[in-house]
Amino acid sequence: MKKQLAITLPVRDLARSQAFFTALGFSFNPQFSSEQGSGMNISDDIFVMLCEESFFGTLTKKPMADPRSSTIALLCLFCDSREEVDALAAKALSLGATLPEDPEDHGFMYQHGFEDLDGHMWALTHIAEMPAQQPAAA
């Protein structure tokens, strides 16, 4: 079976989050959607379930951390170009996302990002060319 990844993120207002990510260009699968959550397609192999906070709490016995005040995870989404990174970050910011830090240019890798409406951190990344691996010291 081909490896795929599905991430479940708690959100305060499902309709508002759906509108935000739809405006960013992502689609939702009605087969994986209900009043409690909505399945967002990132690519053929990456899916995000946006889940109402009240329902998310039923999925685990651990307490839910608040992404507005704690870092739970950093979601790194690879883009095809620096221009795509900047355009997606600018679009997210125009839709109400916040800027967690300035863009970083590492030469071979460029990153920009945003915190979505619920505080989840998205790192938009373009890797132009991986640096050559150095042999391990003897």
UniProtKB/TrEMBL annotation:
Domain VOC: 3-127
InterPro entries reported for this sequence: Glyas_Bleomycin-R_OHBP_Dase (IPR029068), Glyoxy/Ble-like_N (IPR053863), VOC_core (IPR037523)
Cross-referenced SUPFAM superfamilies: Glyoxalase/Bleomycin resistance protein/Dihydroxybiphenyl dioxygenase
A Pfam family assignment: Ble-like_N
Keyword set includes Coiled coil: no
Keyword tags: Dioxygenase, Oxidoreductase
GO MF: dioxygenase activity
Gene3D superfamilies: 2,3-Dihydroxybiphenyl 1,2-Dioxygenase, domain 1 (3.10.180.10)
Keyword Nuclease: no
Origin superkingdom: Bacteria
Family matches, as PANTHER family: BLR2408 PROTEIN, BLR2520 PROTEIN
Name recorded for this polypeptide: Glyoxalase/bleomycin resistance/extradiol dioxygenase family protein
